[in-house]
Amino acid sequence: MILSRRSFMLGGAALAAVPARLLAEQTADGFTLLTMRPVEARLMEGDRQATKLQSLSGTWPPPVLRAKQGEEFKVRFVNELDQPIALHWYGLRGPSELMSISVAPGKDNAFDCVFTPPDAGTFWLSPVADVSRQREIGLYALVVVEERELPEKFAEIPLVFDDWQLTDDGQIDASTFGNLQDAIGQGRLGNWFTVNGAYRPKIDMSAGLVRLRILNAANVRTMAIVFKGADPLVIAEDGQPVPPRELGSQGLILAPGQRSDLLVGEGEETLTLAVNLFEDIIEAAYLDRKGASQPVALPDNFALPPNPISTDLDLDKARTVPLTLEGGEKGGMTGAVYGGEKLDLRALLEKGMAWAINGTAGLAAQPWETFTKGESVVLDVANRTKFDQPLHIHGHVWKIIDDQPQPWRDTVVIPAGAQAKLGFVADNPGKWGIQSAIAERVDSGLITSFEVTL
């Protein structure tokens, strides 16, 4: 295994400078241009050979796309790979026909995606089909939507955490793609860590207030990120502002696909970002303070401006519908409907299906449920599997309903064997998905769809 205590305790000798180019290319007619191509990247330290990857922008590290809340966002996709790419704007609440798109190979099949993001925050763009392979080889991007107005100005740094399953010669271990054990078990855990596509990068950071936009892009690993040299404030989760709170000693826990915005106070000390693997803590990136510290006093009531999400969830009038998660190793599932046919577990596994929602593996020909625009919905979720299940909802935000105030977000973790209620307002017309945030599980059946009608 590449992942070992020694490999991550080499100290400053392993530091690498972050590649300067993070922002995607802009065209003369105002589009952000994403040209999907093969790339090579030095994910490992020393003289190991470059890793063969693919990129949404044809460059490495993965791009950062920038938009402005309430203003038109224009992205042009050109697919120079040899297979179609299906992508989803995770967390963005745009029109349903543009939030999940497919881009065919060839320059003549360029696809223009134009919409106006209603929400400010930190989001991401990533595959929604063949997820296990395409996410693992680098086809994703961080998406930053700037607030329409933000009185407090501070610098910001995007930080994309990922783990990779690499062979000893530094290449993606393609032999395990489609592995049945990964599909029914924990998923594809990586053995090598990067931040912003680099091993142990050293990133310049101003000495004043800094906003960190953090994404966990791993296939399956929940990242437990700890900070040495600062005690940040959490100011947003999954793109939605939250009342600022201290992060605390536990660190930042992000399931795959989750994002968090943190605010780091002014200072002069270099920050070390580490990942807690519980049996070990590995250093993953370094934020190197530059310039003199300039004290800035945030107002006592500081918070990011709220987004225009529907928070008027009417629990008295809400429609409650069951959402049952089944499958996986030792999950007890005996069969499910797939492709309109009821199959036993053995037949499902032969077709690469190992999970089901409400007795159906994968997307059905028709949406699982239909809601009316503005309807309050409570999903009574029963996780009958032996695994924690991070679930993502398309085009909406939801929250756990219990006795404590809960934030609105787009990805929620349901513990193994647990029951939970998720509430949302079906306010975005169109066809949408509810899916596992774990790549191998969405590929093997843990996804369903619903429709919101006018």
Folded structure, characterized:
Helices cover 6% and strands 44% of the residues. It is mainly β and 454 residues long. The protein folds into two domains: 6-290, Immunoglobulin-like (Sandwich), CATH 2.60.40; 319-453, Cupredoxins -  blue copper proteins (Immunoglobulin-like). The longest helix has 6 residues, at 131-136.
Uncertain segments are 1-20
User: So, the CATH homologous superfamily of the largest domain?
Assistant: Cupredoxins -  blue copper proteins
If helices are DSSP runs of H or I spanning 4 or more residues, what is the number of helices?
5
Helical content stands at: under 10%
Structural class: mainly beta
Total discrete domains: 2
DSSP E strands, number: 34
What is the C-alpha radius of gyration, as a whole number of Å? 21 Å
Q: Which architecture of the largest domain does the CATH hierarchy give at level 2?
A: Sandwich
What is the overall silhouette?
A: globular
Quick check: average pLDDT? 92
Q: What is the straight-line distance between the termini?
A: 53 Å
CATH class of the largest domain: Mainly Beta
Task: Outline the fold blueprint.
Layout: E1 16-17, E2 25-26, E3 32-41, E4 51-55, E5 64-68, E6 73-79, E7 85-90, H1 96-99, E8 100-103, E9 106-115, E10 121-127, H2 131-136, E11 141-146, E12 155-164, H3 180-184, E13 192-195, E14 201-206, E15 210-216, E16 223-228, E17 233-237, E18 240-246, E19 252-254, E20 259-264, E21 271-276, E22 281-290, E23 319-327, E24 335-338, E25 341-344, H4 345-350, E26 355-357, E27 369-372, E28 375-383, E29 389-393, E30 399-400, E31 411-414, E32 419-426, E33 430-436, H5 439-443, E34 447-453
Parallel strand pairs: 1-14, 3-6, 5-11, 12-15, 14-22, 23-28, 27-34
Antiparallel strand pairs: 2-3, 3-4, 6-9, 7-8, 7-10, 10-11, 12-13, 15-20, 16-19, 16-21, 17-18, 17-20, 21-22, 23-26, 24-25, 28-32, 29-31, 29-33, 30-32, 33-34
